[in-house]
Amino acid sequence: MRIRLIRRREIWAVTREGWVIAIIGLIISMTLIIANIHPFLAVTSPIKADILVVEGWLPDYAVESAIAEFKKGGYRQLIATGLPVGKGYYLAEYKNYAELTAATCIALGFDRDKVIAVPAPSVVKHRTAASAIALRDWLAASAIKVDSINLYSIGTHARRSWIVFKEVLHPDIKVGIIAAEPQDYNPQEWWKSSEGFRTVTGEIIAYIYARFVDWKA
User: 3-class DSSP state for residue 45?
Assistant: First the structure.
């Protein structure tokens, strides 16, 4: 009886031409992803709605553009959401981003009777969901009849916020989305700045995560 420790086996291997085609395909795929990922994440898809909901953590220039959207869209109420401020809480007049954004709108000349702050409690994770749940609970208890809203976010955070708010408010309230354009980097060439690269790559990961979470829970 002969014992063999090794044996010859025929295998398939990628040729030089195959590697060239694979690399070219990878380059084309990466180019398409880089060119289209920002517009995909920074989605704008508004619906007919009387209520404009503004994420309270947005920078002041985005709050200004939200006010412009309110006037242009003919809304009857602006609702600011947000968690407690993370810095200066003990010194700040406004303890959460919802109240801070509402006060900012008023300081910019917005009608105080048309803006409402709906703060959310402090949470360690799922901050967007906490704001959406606080809004849902507030709307359920208020006298305002709402069947649709437009959510105002910024840049690549928009699609993730849209996913969360749609799931939390479903099926009672339909949700549209509007994304303000960021001023911290050039959206058309986001990969050329550290701020743009960090923001977009971080939101890609967060978006994938958001697709696998049950936000109604």
Answer: strand
Sign of CA dihedral 42, 44, 45, 47: positive
pLDDT in tens, 30-68: 989 898 999 999 999 999 999 999 999 999 999 999 999
Closest by CA to 80, choosing from 93, 95, 63, is 63
**Amino acid of residue 52:** L
Helix, strand, coil share (%) of the chain residues, nearest 5: 50, 15, 35
Asked if 113 and 69 touch (Cβ cutoff 8 Å), the reply is no
User: Is 0.90 topped by the overall pTM?
Assistant: no
In the chain the domains, ranked by start, together with CATH numbers, are 41-210 (3.40.50.620)
Q: H or E element: which one contains 175?
A: strand 174-180
For residues 168 and 155, give the distance between their C-alpha atoms in angstroms, rounded to a whole number. 21
The token duo for 97 is 């981003």
pLDDT level of residue 217 (50, 70, 90 thresholds): low
Cα–Cα dist 129/51, whole Å:
19
Find out whether 137 and 155 touch, Cβ atoms under 8 Å: no
Beta bridge partners of 51: 77, 149
Asked if 138 and 117 count as a contact pair (C-beta separation under 8 A), the reply is no
